[in-house]
Amino acid sequence: MTDQDSGRRPKYQRIADELRTAIQSGAFAPGDRLPGENDLMTTYDVARMTARQALSVLRNEGLAEARKGAGVFVRTFRPLRRRGIPRLAQGHWGTGHSVWSADVEDRALVVDQIEVGETAATARVAEALGLPPDSPVCVRSRRFVLDGKPVLLSVSYLPATLTQGSPITTPDTGPGGTYARLTDLGHEPVHFREEIRCRMPTAAESSRLSLELGTPVILIARTAFTAKGAPVELNEMTLDSSSYVLEYDFDA
Amino acid sequence: MTDQDSGRRPKYQRIADELRTAIQSGAFAPGDRLPGENDLMTTYDVARMTARQALSVLRNEGLAEARKGAGVFVRTFRPLRRRGIPRLAQGHWGTGHSVWSADVEDRALVVDQIEVGETAATARVAEALGLPPDSPVCVRSRRFVLDGKPVLLSVSYLPATLTQGSPITTPDTGPGGTYARLTDLGHEPVHFREEIRCRMPTAAESSRLSLELGTPVILIARTAFTAKGAPVELNEMTLDSSSYVLEYDFDA
DNA sequence: CAGTGGTCTAGACCACGAT
DNA sequence: TCGTGGTCTAGACCACTGG
After folding, report:
1. Residue B168 per-residue DSSP state
2. Domain boundary pick from A74, A90, A115
3. B171 and B113 housed in the same domain
4. Residues sharing a CB contact under 8 Å with residue B101, sequence separation 6 or more, in sequence order
5. B118 and B175 both lie in a single domain
6. Which nucleotide is nearest to B45 (CA to C1')?
7. Same domain, yes or no, for B170 and B100?
8. φ, ψ at B148 (rounded to 5°)
9. Of A198, A196, A188, A197, which Cα lies nearest the Cα of A233?
10. Residue A96 and residue A133 in one domain
11. Domain ends where: A40, A59, A74?
């Protein structure tokens, strides 16, 4: 260590800084290959682990992704748009445009890993549905895959007393889906509450969504209410944050 | 490597798995100290870097945080609740309860790092406000600190032609804030669009929000529209995801 | 097959925090 | 002061990808 020490910033962070700046300045475009471990070792005269650490910083920031045997590449962000309130989202609020561009949806959607069954409600689920603990609930679990890329995990909980004998307890709920069947049963959902949070994925989520390192997940917990204010469904969704932009339109 | 190899899972991931399971089973509660590098080295008979790598997995998952000189500890999650649509959020949708608990807000809020000025709109800002590129815009930048912990960065953009000479161009906008002043000027915002995404923080964001490793940020871009459908404000917010749950209520 | 990233070892020195 | 995590070196073998 003869020259450096200018500033107390660790070597691996200095290297990461330079690469990050280069990416953000456009010197490396999305999809471009970045200098690899060997490049950094010679360029900066550091050990292998130090070069690796620098690259791992960028990966954990979601800026780069490694492809084994190929190299390290700048990541892209081309999200889908999920409209939380379709009724209001269209219309004449058109002078200003969206902040983040999003792909149009004329792609191949596959629903996957469907599991339907009945279990005892966890404390959280019972609370959200206004049921006593351990009440029986209908559980519908699915995965959504868009153009071969998994983007969304969905688990829906409904009071089992409501869904007895209804198509809701079968994999195919029929035209209009679960909400149409609830309406048939006299429990039409008219009000919704969505709670949103964000965190790093568990190993299981990371695997089911094929997530890159440094990709958070968005959690949406949607509760559906009837006109009487009774909760009839809790839908817990797990989204690949690199695939989604959420949008909510509302009036003052 | 005499015994292992049972399963091709790398050592550091196996160690991380065991610790993760122990955390999720409650063997280690939030705030508890986890086995440190030296503990793992002797327990699993691995090299220092391997133990470090196992712990770094948990940190990047947001499950653990390291305190230099002290140890590695299980993280906590006690979020604030941000209601996107206050008018609807109250009321009679009360049978079902929130999925995630949230602290009540009787805490000390400080607004910080206030900067107000005028610049040329970036392409993204101009697009959102329906302005020609490089149009002059009023910029209001702030940081919100709750009980000493920074939780939110906010940057607001308004067409400079609207705000000329108004208190909006000063640090203190007066009672009712920016929206009240816009109303005074005959540009009352009546409709809002919020776009939400999520990603890992930049170094600057991480520093301004004092984020732990493994903590994503939530980005909210809110556009405010007048009754005529003209956008009058773009507010870009950056939230510490470990401090927030977002909530949206709406009707079918 | 050559090059890449993935994993792992066995050392070292440092800055920091608790005692 | 002593243990902790933070940084760094200089090697090694492996699995995978590409031409």
Report:
1. G
2. A74
3. yes
4. B78
5. yes
6. C9
7. yes
8. 85, -5
9. A188
10. yes
11. A74
Tokens of A82: 């999920």
What pLDDT, in 10s, does the model give residues B221-251? Answer: 999 999 999 999 999 999 999 989 999 988 8
Contact A192 B252 (CB under 8 A): yes
* Tokens (6 digits) for B160: 């400079």
Which pair of tokens denotes residue B230?
């003209």
- Interface contact flag, A225 B95, Cβ < 8 Å: yes
Asked if the C-beta of A107 comes within 8 angstroms of chain B's C-beta atoms, the answer is no
What are the structure tokens assigned to B117, written together?
């000025």
d(CA B17, CA A88): 45
CA distance A177 to A168: 8
Tokens of B53: 């790598």
Q: Is residue B6 part of a domain?
A: no
What end-to-end distance do the CA atoms of chain B give, in Å?
A: 60
Q: Is residue B252 part of a domain?
A: no
| Token pair 């920074």: residue | B150
Lowest mean pLDDT among A186-195, B77-86, B105-114: B105-114
Around Cβ B202, how many Cβ atoms within 10 Å? 15
| Domain encompassing residue A62 | 11-74
Query: CATH code at B202?
Result: 3.40.1410.10
The DSSP code for A32 is P
Same domain, A115 and A239: yes
Q: If you search the block for the tokens 């559980």, which residue do you land on? A: A139
Report yes or no on A60 lying in a domain: yes
Give dist(CA A102, CA A82) in Å, integer. 10
What is the distance between the alpha carbons of residues A198 and A139, in angstroms, rounded to a whole number? 23
Contact A96 B124 (CB under 8 A): no
Return the beta strands (E) in A91-148 as ranges.
109-120, 136-146
Q: How far apart are CA A55 and CA A66, in angstroms?
A: 9
Same domain, A115 and A147: yes
Nearest to B115 by CA among B138, B148, B134: B138
At A11-57, the pLDDT tens digits run 999 999 999 999 989 899 998 999 999 999 989 989 999 999 999 99
* Residue A62 DSSP one-character state: T
Task: Evaluate whether residue B1 is within a structural domain.
Answer: no
Q: Which residue is nearest to nucleotide C2 (CA to C1')?
A: A69
Same domain, B123 and B240: yes
DSSP B169: G
Chain D nucleotides with an atom closer than 7 Å to a protein C-beta:
3-12, 15-18
